[in-house]
Write a structure and sequence with these properties.
The structure is a single chain. The chain has 237 residues and is of the alpha+beta class. It contains 7 helices and 7 strands, in the order αααββααααβββββ. The chain has a 5-stranded antiparallel sheet with strand order 6-5-4-3-7, covered by helices on one side. A two-stranded antiparallel sheet has the order 1-2. The two termini are 37 Å apart. 22% of the residues are buried.
Length: 237
Amino acid sequence: MNRTDRLYALVEELRARAPRRVSARELAARFEVSTRTIERDIGALQQAGVPIYADVGRGGGYTLDPERTLPPLNFTPAEAVAVAITLARADGSPYARAARTALHKIVSAMPANDGASARELADRVRFLTPDGAGGAPPSVPSVLEEAVSARRVVRLGYVNGAGETSERDVEPVAFTCASLRWYLIGWCRLRGEARIFRIDRIRRAALLEETAPERRYEDVMIKDVPLDYVTHRLEFV
């Protein structure tokens, strides 16, 4: 059994036994590998967002929260690749990390043969990106994601289109995307009005302890939106 299949099988084994705990030794015997290999596999799954909990000591082991995992999915390989293409467009967005873990969960929940076929099909898809393209530091999008979800004031180090650097405290309101570029819409305390910030121009982002006043997207008037653009909500259909 290769590692990809074993990771999928580990999740299914833990789901089948939940809420009982299973020791690393039992899992190692079940999959005919060392306990060290099981520990590495469990660590990789946890980092990917799979809700596996571990207890140490006598009677301890691993268990999985079945309410926070996906049952086996009947995605076709083409459907899985279509989802992967859509999620790949989240690179550079505040939800890029969540997109990667979501894709891992989807593929892990597919039957092993379908998952392997999806990976083979995905290998025939290529994206072209500018060589050496810059962007915001990796920590910036995750800080902005938390700022919006927790409605916390965020302090930005920002470089505008003219190359001028400024530091400003911003009350986050919403994210928007245009032409594959992501922006943060917020109330800029430095300027005393709503502003839109290109995420790849944010060099630093730090959460402040202060809770931002509640503002809706409809409450802020953004002057920088081109007249030939129409705003659409993100909808779950």
